[in-house]
Amino acid sequence: MLSFFTRFFSNDLAIDLGTANTLIYVNGKGIVLDEPSVVSMQRDPMGSGKNITLAVGAEAKKMLGRTPGTIEAVRPMKDGVIADLNVTERMLKEFIRKVNNNRFISTPRVVICVPCGSTQVERRAIRDSAYSAGASDVFLIEEPMAAALGAGLPVASPTGSMVVDIGGGTTEVGIISLSGVVHSQSVRVGGDAFDEAIVHYVRRNYGMMIGESTAEEIKKQIGSAFPGMEVTEMEVKGRNLAEGVPRSFIITSNEVLEALADPISQIVQAVRSTLEKTPPELGADIAERGLVLTGGGALLKGFDRLLAEETGLPVTIAEDPLTCVARGAGVALNEIGKLNSIFIMNP
User: Fold this and answer.
1) What radius of gyration, in Å, describes the C-alpha atoms of the chain?
2) Residues tagged in the binding site annotation
3) Model's pTM, two decimal places?
4) Which of 103, 289, 330, 332 has the most crowded Cβ, counting Cβ within 10 A?
5) Per the CATH hierarchy, to which homologous superfamily does domain 2-37+75-144+326-342 belong?
6) Highest-confidence range of 16-20, 40-44, 260-264, by mean pLDDT?
7) pLDDT value at position 46?
8) Residues that bind ATP, according to the entry (predicted)?
9) Residues of each annotated binding site for ATP
10) E strands within the chain?
């Protein structure tokens, strides 16, 4: 009776705990939270060594690069895994509180996504952070499987499906068949690496310092992965390193293409490597059906064309690729009993 009462007055959650953003799916409601994975904290003025949480999510991201010495804006996730356990727990607790509209509601079951290349220790840290945030039961699912579910691929069928999920911290490449990940590869390159590459390019070629939010805007507006597309340009403001004062300059899409060449080539190599290790029977399925792109990186102009040219396969961008992993985790949440085999055993 108590179990039924708890389940009735609870929100089962599916969480895409990403390096750049955290998305939360609630049973029956869909995605109810999509916020940056950022926490701003202030050092305790009494010198206790404890930090006071000031803001989480979108409000905290506004503070990145703009805080005084006593306030720090932190990204607790790095390369798809937890870099700061304590801060991650604070962030999850706050996000769950927002989802529950400040009401006390127990959260008995949580499905949470992990990179396929994460270690047992990293997976245990993610599981522990979810328990500390209020979950009483935690299920882990690999991101390629969640992405495939979110993209509507037939994961339970004996045919092979291929998904490439380009997130903020990692790119996950997976071959899916019979409710399992047959082969996968995780490279710690994603949207954040794109931004860093643009920052370094601007510093090296223009002698200018720009912040990560500016680099992200450049990527979104004129970034591309495929040569020969229409050349566009953008005016950018930054700090001239020689003079130490703000200056403006013009950067073109061809320059951004050059800046992104290295991280993009790492992703292409991961896709090729995965294809080379795919069993022949599944390889034939993938040659016919192609691969599906998910994650924020799928929105980089020309990435689908580049992968199609490099692999010779049909490439499709999933519908709403940014939310694919979270929605797929939601599918798993709704079918916990039927899809039990897709979850990772306790680390």
Assistant:
1) 21
2) 19-21, 168-170, 216-219, 296-299
3) 0.90
4) 330
5) ATPase, nucleotide binding domain (3.30.420.40)
6) 260-264
7) 64
8) 19-21, 168-170, 216-219, 296-299
9) 19-21, 168-170, 216-219, 296-299
10) 13-17, 21-26, 30-36, 39-43, 51-56, 71-74, 77-78, 81-82, 107-114, 135-142, 161-166, 171-177, 180-187, 208-209, 233-240, 246-252, 291-294, 315-317
